[in-house]
């Protein structure tokens, strides 16, 4: 929310389906994907997100948010939105203590500092998913139509360009 304010975009917290009423684009943040997924299911926020997305709402998932967008989560049956044709492996860089930063080269944007916090690894992407940045030959920022997903946290840096890219996607959809 702080990052969106810095980009001159008004932002609200979304916890329940009705919170989406005036929302044009949704960022699903980091956290624990099992917890977020269970809460989404309990309140039917998942159904409302899917419905609004079908009507054009752009989505951006960071880290746990990217896991929640995925169709396939290796070895897990946890609740998810199932909107992005990728396969992810949770916690594949190791434990919290193995979190790290790395310089990334992002398509159309340039050099970006990637903050990876107990991040997942995107193992596979399927038809139509564009890879915008890679680390160690694995995708870390991807896009399909009006869905963006990153395994890192650009909101934890001063650099607004990834969010501005998403805001552009929201405006276009
Ligand atoms: N490890 C978390 C998960 O698998 C994701 C961590 C994060 O969002 N930074 O759900």
List the helices and strands and how they pair.
Layout: H1 2-6, E1 25-28, H2 33-43, H3 45-54, E2 58-62, H4 64-69, E3 70-73, E4 84-89, E5 100-106, E6 110-116, E7 121-125, E8 130-135, E9 138-144, E10 147-150, H5 161-172
Parallel strand pairs: 1-2, 2-10, 3-4
Antiparallel strand pairs: 4-7, 5-6, 8-9, 9-10
Bound molecules: glutamine.
Q: What features would you highlight for this structure?
A:
single chain, 173 residues, alpha/beta, 5-stranded mixed β-sheet, 10 strands, globular, binds glutamine
How would you describe the overall organization of this protein?
The two termini are 21 Å apart. With 173 residues, the chain is an alpha/beta fold. It has helices at 2-6, 33-43, 45-54, 64-69, 161-172; strands at residues 25-28, 58-62, 70-73, 84-89, 100-106, 110-116, 121-125, 130-135, 138-144, 147-150. Strands 1-2-10-9-8 form a 5-stranded mixed sheet. Strands 3-4-7 form a 3-stranded mixed sheet. Strands 5-6 form a two-stranded antiparallel ribbon. Glutamine (GLN) binds next to helix 4.
Q: How is the main sheet built?
A: 5 strands, mixed
Number of strands: 10
Trace the largest sheet across and list its strands. Answer: 1-2-10-9-8
Rg from Cα: 15 Å
The global form is: globular
- Please identify the structural class as seen in this structure: alpha/beta
């Amino acid at each position: 929310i702080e990052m969106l304010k810095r980009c001159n975009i008004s932002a609200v917290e979304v916890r329940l389906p009705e919170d989406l009423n005036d929302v044009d684009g949704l960022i699903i943040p980091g956290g624990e994907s099992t917890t977020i997924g269970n809460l989404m299911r309990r309140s039917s926020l998942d159904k409302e997100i899917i419905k609004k997305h079908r009507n054009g709402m752009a989505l951006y998932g960071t880290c746990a948010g990217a896991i929640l967008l995925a169709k396939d989560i290796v070895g897990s049956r946890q609740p998810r939105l199932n909107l992005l044709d990728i396969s992810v492996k949770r916690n594949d860089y190791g434990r919290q203590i193995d979190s790290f930063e790395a310089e990334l080269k992002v398509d159309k944007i340039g050099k970006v500092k990637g903050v990876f916090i107990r991040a997942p690894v995107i193992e596979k992407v399927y038809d139509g998913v564009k890879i915008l940045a890679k680390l160690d030959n694995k995708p870390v920022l991807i896009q399909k139509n009006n869905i963006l997903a990153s395994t890192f946290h650009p909101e934890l840096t001063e650099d607004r360009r990834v969010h501005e890219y998403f805001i552009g996607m929201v405006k276009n959809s």
